[in-house]
Design goal:
The structure holds 2 protein chains of 2 kinds. Chain A is an alpha/beta fold. Chain A has a domain of 140 residues: P-loop containing nucleotide triphosphate hydrolases (Rossmann fold, 3-Layer(aba) Sandwich). Chain A is 38% helix and 26% strand. Chain A contains 10 helices and 10 strands. Chain A has a 6-stranded mixed beta sheet, with helices on both faces. Chain A has a 4-stranded antiparallel beta sheet with strand order 2-1-4-5, covered by helices on one side. Chain B is mainly alpha-helical. Chain B is globular. The relative contact order of chain B is 0.21. Classes of the chains: A alpha/beta, B mainly alpha. Chains A and B meet through helix 2 and helix 3 of A and helix 6 and helix 7 of B.
Chain lengths: 238, 286
């Protein structure tokens, strides 16, 4: 088996007096779509925030593409190749769709390649082309998510982490976004998806980690986990 | 005196006011820091330009970019070394810090330059424009002030740094996820605020006498303009500056010049009650 792109071992993290993550160990293979599922408050977002450097880990290691990145500042992590699409899109108000997308490429200097990537993003989500000059926060929820994903792609990462792809979106839009992610993945970009909606996540991803109260409770291929009665009962309501 | 002349005087004054306030507004809007140093930065810019002109005899416009860059460096250093340590503290903490730094700068300037009013005299004469008489140095000052304000607007709207500054203003954490080093952007923003103050001071010294006794008055003006026009945007400072200049000009004529400042502050109080976002401002810091 190839060496994992992202490898997390015994990770501990939290805020102030509250520890959220306990002994989290997981790995993402290069080229795959993996997902982290779990209920609200399980620690999924904290895990992504720790990986991207917004929170310092208290213990354990995070290795990416062979190097240790645990505790590095966000600009180091992004520069190393991990882009984080945050929960709730968090687009910048007062800036156009185009400016928001360009901010994704903030750390890059290769002007021509940036323009080419911008074209690719606008091809992937043609609606953004029509809205390019509009204030990004005036877009609909689905369009905002497209813009946020596009902004992540603009960093030209090796790993794209997306927090709550489906949150607040109609099922039809989620399907459309899922197809787009699979399309992006085919170009070689590894994706780590975080979802409360297990059905959606399992349709898109190949591997899954289930997080409960800050610990990894189950892991495996989504095909196997999708048939597991515990998962079906707890998360799919079946 | 006819209305055209009063209006023209107000616009000239207003353009200078806009240039004075725009850096203050930027720092307040982006960093949520009320920069008490702003008035002293303006006077420092004025003095540096004056002395450079007095000793060399070269046209002071040449020194404007140099003075602006010196002030940028000073502002960057102040933010990086001091304010960044407490920037996320409540606004009173940063206000007290900049107030203390201002006392140091103010007193150093008074010792080094003395408080004697100084003015660059260019003797360019005046022009008669349809019966409105305008001294040429004031027209040049107004043009320079508008050019500087316009340049800042262009930088904020079209450059990568401008985008990053807006991003930090709107969502600090999301900006970090773009790889933006927030403390560095803070220092650059404060540096730009000081740069605009220094440039405004340089322009001011070509039109009116500058003295350290004016630092408080400039700070007060910047404050009023931000409230009138709205916080954290270049158009807000421009509208606020022009509005204050014209209002002061007219009320000075009607009520006497000693009341012009009072009218400005009364107007600020009314706007705070009626329209706290300012004439073109947006609500809050979001």
């Amino acid at each position: 088996m190839a060496e994992p792109l992202l490898e997390i071992e015994k990770l501990e993290a939290g805020y102030g007096d509250v520890q959220v993550l306990w002994d989290v160990t997981m790995a993402v293979e290069p080229g795959e779509i993996a997902c982290i599922v779990g209920s609200n408050g399980a620690g999924k977002t904290t895990l992504l925030r720790t990986i991207s450097g917004l929170i310092k880990p208290r213990g354990g290691t995070i290795r990416f593409a062979g190097g240790e990145i645990g505790g590095r500042a966000p600009d180091h992590v992004l520069g190393g190749g991990i882009a984080h699409v945050p929960e709730g899109r968090r687009l910048f108000k007062g800036l156009s769709v185009r400016d928001n997308l360009m901010l994704g490429a903030y750390l890059r200097d290769d002007r021509e390649a940036i323009e080419a990537d911008l074209e690719k993003v606008l091809e992937l989500f043609p609606i953004l082309k029509d809205r390019a000059r509009q204030d990004a926060t005036t877009l609909s929820g689905g369009e905002q998510q497209m813009c946020a994903i596009g902004r992540g792609i603009m960093a030209r990462p090796k790993l794209l982490m997306i927090d709550e792809l489906s949150l607040g979106l109609a099922p039809r839009l989620v399907d459309r976004l899922g197809e787009a992610l699979i399309e992006i993945n085919r170009t070689g970009l590894t994706i780590l998806l975080v979802e409360q909606d297990v059905m959606t996540a399992f349709e898109i991803a190949r591997h899954a980690y289930v997080i409960e109260t800050g610990r990894v409770s189950m892991a495996g291929s989504t095909k196997v986990l999708g048939d597991d009665p515990r998962i079906r009962q707890a998360y799919m309501g079946l | 005196m006819d209305v055209g002349q009063i209006l023209a005087n107000g616009i000239v004054l207003g353009a200078l006011y806009a240039c004075i306030a725009v850096g203050f507004s930027l720092v307040w809007g982006v960093l949520n820091v009320i920069n008490m140093l702003h008035g002293s930065f303006i006077i420092l810019g004025g003095y540096l330009t004056y002395f450079a002109w007095a000793y060399s005899g070269i046209n002071p416009v040449v020194f404007l970019p140099v003075v602006a860059l010196i002030l940028y460096g000073l502002g960057f250093a102040v933010q990086y070394l001091f304010i960044n340590k407490v920037v996320s503290a409540p606004v009173l903490t940063t206000l007290t810090l900049t107030f203390g730094l201002d006392m140091i700068l103010y007193n150093v300037m008074t010792v080094v330059f003395t408080a004697t009013p100084r003015r660059i005299t260019l003797d360019l004469g005046s022009v008669d424009f349809f019966g409105v008489i305008l001294p040429v140095d004031r027209v040049v000052g107004m043009a320079l002030a508008l050019i500087l304000t316009g340049l800042l607007y262009a930088v904020m709207r079209t450059s990568k740094i401008g985008r990053a500054i807006v991003a930090v203003r709107m969502d600090r954490q999301a900006a970090e996820l773009m790889g933006i080093r927030v403390n560095r952007i803070y220092a650059i923003t404060f540096g730009i605020g000081a740069l605009m103050a220094g440039a405004a001071g340089a322009v001011f010294a070509m039109v009116f006498p500058v003295t350290t006794n004016l630092t408080g008055a400039f700070l007060g003006k910047a404050f009023v303009i931000c409230v009138i026009g709205g916080l954290g945007s270049v158009p807000g400072a421009l509208v606020g500056g022009l509005a204050l200049g014209i209002i002061e000009s007219f009320s000075g004529y009607v009520l006497g010049p000693q009341h012009a400042i009072t009218v400005g502050f009364v107007l600020m109080l009314i706007l705070l009650v009626v329209r706290p976002t300012g004439l073109v401002g947006v609500k809050g810091y979001e």
